[in-house]
Structures are given as structure tokens and as C-alpha cells.
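Inputs:
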Amino acid sequence: MTYDVTLQNITKTYEKGAIKAVKNVSLQIEKGELFGLIGPDGAGKTSIFRILTTLLLPDEGMANVNGLDVVSDYKEIRKRVGYMPGKFSLYQDLSVEENLKFFATLFDTTIEENYDIIKDIYVQIEPFKTRAAGQLSGGMKQKLALCCAMIHRPSVLFLDEPTTGVDSVSRKEFWNMLKKLKAQGITILVSTPYMDEATLCERIALIQEGEIMSVDTPQNIIDQYPMPLYKVKSDKMSLLLKDLRTLSYVTSAMSFGEFHHITFNSKTDESAQLLEDLKHHEKLECLPTRATVEDCFIHLMQNNVHAE
Amino acid sequence: MFRDPKTLLLLFGMPIAQILLFGFALTNEIKDSKIVVIDYAQDNASKNIIHKLSANPAFDLAESHFNAEQIENAFQKGTIKLAVIFPANFEHNLLHSSNSQIQIIADASDPNTASTLSNYASAIIQDYQLSQLQQQGMATTPLNIDTQIRMIYNPELKGATNYVPGVMALVLLLVSVLMTSVSIVREKELGTMEILLVSPVSPLMVIISKAIPYFALSIFNLTIILMLSYFLLELPIAGSLVLLYAASSLLILTGLALGLLISNSTDSQQTAMLISLMGMLIPTILFSGFMFPIENMPWPLQIISNVVPSKWYYIIVKDVMIKGLGFSSVWKEMLILTSMAIALLLISLKKYKIRLV
């Protein structure tokens, strides 16, 4: 198996060691893989991206991109990778077309030369090509930024939270584009705080407070969820959550949109008991359900806290 | 406010620094101006006047036997501000034909100093004349000393000769420092620096491509200033235009390098702007010599003035534009500016951050 991106015991601190952003992280990402770094804000995702894109020096550990060391071969890496920072970082006063042209020139290429690679995405923003980049909608900005990051045919693409602040339709479109790019053999490392996007990656790493909690395919991570999960619903959801947490046989109760996800202390189904105990709630339902990545994340996170 | 030491320093440091500077160091007063006396007469009357001149604190007087060419040289080098020339037979003419002449030559490229100094000198001569009259009583025919004042380089005493070079120094330096520093910090602020760094573009390339437009802009600015001063203020350009542009290019380069240096150490456009303004505007006004004569400052400030690029530029522009001197007279200043520009460019290239933080 050839790895395109590897991290070995990477540690990164800020403020002279006072803030530990990345703690002893090791990861291997295969060539042509669509790999997701999943974690909340402040988990250390951006720091890892910046180390891999040679923008930051790690305090400890080694990292390779395309077999090149991120510290000593930084110049070569900068020629080969595509990077889309978390913050929209194009020239707002330049038009869509000018931005693309600028980045093509920056990498010593032309739009025509690599048009095939960005074509699918670019046609969607082409009608607005004379508009200033700052005037575009969030989704279009992301598409343009992706085009600019792709224009030099990078071998590895780093996308730091590309879907943050983008509407759900555009997010879906964006992931479809990533799948198409992956089909062209480009290794893609993408980070996101949205757990629902995790299943769209081939493999994911769950990261929390600078530490990797789990690395696997989304399916395996879900399958590893150790206990049966139930979803509960009533007409007074916030009161229900409070009540659920008072029940001695309920281990955890978390709000999950339409339902609350709960687990019981024992592996036995206590839902009958629960329906009885909470009968003052109207339209009460308690059904078994499948775990999501978010359930796994919370479970791992709580285990981590207990371990410490 | 107390959590922001920079603002604190600015608030309390500024008034202290200004009071000290303006109160003690920077003064428009004229004292100890270097003047030279050429006495062809060597008689009692001329000696008397010379004695009176040397007693005046405004003058630092030296006697010499300069010929016309040597006087011209001394003025070009700027070693003297004023020359007083007594013709031969000064007293003889005064006593016998009751009419004599004294010639005063002043360097009017600084019109304020020139007129003040020549006024002082003629007042002293008038004073002598009066005292002679009182001594001899009213009976004799009144003595008349005719003072001929010659303002060289700027016979009409135009103020423009003083401030046009000053404004040139100020505008060129300010624009190049401010624009460069702000433009690079803006890339940091907007985040575009992040993608610029993750690209094959070398630091040198970024710096050059930042510098070229502002260089062109500054040259354009210079042309406008020169045209305005030529057509509107009717200030002729005495020396070589090529030399003037060459010197200006050096100053602009120095400014661009300084701007780069500032942008490397700041993270917001506001700070960059503040540092550029404070760091360039004030020293240029104070230490380039166009507002306050550097010779009159205490020696520590005179030493500080040497590191201000605009001081050297101001000297060059005055020499070339007003006095019409050639490269041979300003090569030293040109050399200083060149080495400043090169040193600053090298430092800023070296300091250019190839990574974030």
C-alpha cells in the first residue's frame, strides 16, 4: 500500500507550549483516497492542515506529503499540492475569471491547459465570471476556491472545512464534486465539523482536543458502537431530555434533531419501563435505532474523558 | 487600554517625546551659522565691523582669503551660509568719498536662513555706521555704507526652494513605505498570503511584484510634483533631471524595503499604517532638515538624523535641483542612500516569512 500523506507522532503547541493544539498524531492516507478529518472547532484540524501544507513547523514528529518531508522539502511540496484554507482566501476585488487566471499564472500554467480538471465545477460559476469574487454567494465562493486550488493539477488536495458556512444544497453538490475529483485519482484530505458529512468519506479520523480517537471507514466506526441505541420522542422535547437524564437506568441521553438518542446501562431493552416511567409525556415513542458517526464521536469522547 | 501596552506607550510617550523634542532640540532659531569674511581692506573700519559681526551669537565667523571661485565652492558644499566681502580701500573710500560698499552673499537655497542672516549682517553694519556718525558729530558729511546683498541660488527668495525638496522627500518616502507595508499586510489579513505561500512563488518574486507597481506609482508622483513646481511655482530645475530621478529611485527603493520590513512584523493593516506614518512622517519632518536646521540640534539628534534616509535625499535634491550641482558633488549622499536601500532590501528578504507565524 502506498501512502500519499503520512503523519508520525506530530505535536504542535502554541504560545510557547501553553496550548497543545495537536498531540502526538499519527495518520496514513492512501494514494487516491478521500479522507475526512472529523472534529469540532478547536480540535486541531487546521493545525494539521497547516503542518501538511508546510505553513507551520511541527514541534515534534515527522510528516510526509507525496513522500516529501514537510520541513525540508517544503518548496517541492508547495508546487504539488492544492490547498483551500478554512477562511475564504481569494482576491475579493478580482473577478471570478481573474482569480482563476491569477492562480494559474502563480503555478506557471494556464486555464486552457488544465481546463478538463475543473470543467465540471467551473461551468457552474462561469455565468458569473465577470463578477468580483467578494460578491459571490457562499456556495459559489467555495466552488471558485476549489477551482483555484485545482488549476495546477495537484496530486494531493487539502480542503480545510470547505463546507462550513455553506447551505445544505451547496454542501451536497460540493461532496459530489469531491467524488468526481477522487475518480481522477487525486488524494483528497478534507476536514469538517459536520458529522453527517463523515459517511461521504472513504475513511475518517475522529479528532478531539488534538488527539485522534479513531481512524477507520465510517461504516466500521458505526459498527463498533458497543451498545444498542434507542431514539425517544415526545411533544415536549427539552423537558423529555431533562426527564431522561433523571432515569437511573439511562446511561446517556443526547439531543439529535428530531429525536433524543439514549443508551441503557444494561444491554437489555428497558424501553417498556421507560414508556411507563415517562407516561406523563404525550406522544411518547421509544424505538431502537442505528448509531451515527456523531453517536460514535460522543461515545469515544466520553470514554476519553473517563480514561483520563 | 491598560491591556494594550502599545496604545499606552503611544498615549503617554508621545507628549513627553514631543515636549522634549520641540522644547529643547528642535528650534528655528539661528545660531552659530558658519559665515566667512573676506577682508581686502584690512583697515580699521573693516576690522571694527568684523569684530562686531563675530560678537553676534548668530554667526560662527571665520576670516579667509577666498577668491570668488573658492567662495562659490564653499557655498556649493554647504560649508558656509553667508559671505561678507570688504573691498580694498574700504575705509579710505568711506572717509574720503563718504561712500563705501560691502558685499554680502547668502545661500538662498534656504531662503529663511538666508534672509535672517543677511538682515542681521546689514543691521550690524548700519549700527556701525550710526555709531560713527555719533562719534564724528553732525558736522561732517554723512557716511554711507552701501550693503549689496546677493542671494545666490534663489535670488527671489522663493519659499518653494525649501519646501519642494522637503515635500518630495516626504511624499516619496511615505507613499512607498505606506503602500508596500499595507499591501503585504492586507494579504495576511485577507488570508490570501496563506495560498500565496503554498505555491511555487518565491519570496523574491512576491517582493518584486509588490514593489514594481508602487515604484512606478512613486515615479509618477515625482513627475507630478516636479511639473507642479516648475509650471505653477515657477521653480526652475537647475541640475540634471536624470540625476534627480536616479536619486528619487534610490529613495523609493529604500522606502519599499522599509515597507516590506514593517509588513513582516505586523499583522494588521492598521498597525502597519500607524507604524509607517509614525516611523516615516515624523522623522522625515524633524530630521531631514527642511523644517528645523540639523546644525542647530544637539549632537545626539544630529547622529540620529544620519539614519533618516530623507535627510540624504533632501541634501541631494537641494544640491541638484536648486544649486544645479552634478554627480561629483552628491555622490557621497547617493552612496549612502544606495547602501541603505541595499541593506534594507537584504534584511527584508531575509526576514520574509516563508511560513505562517
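The radius of gyration of chain A is 22 Å. Flag for discussion at group meeting.
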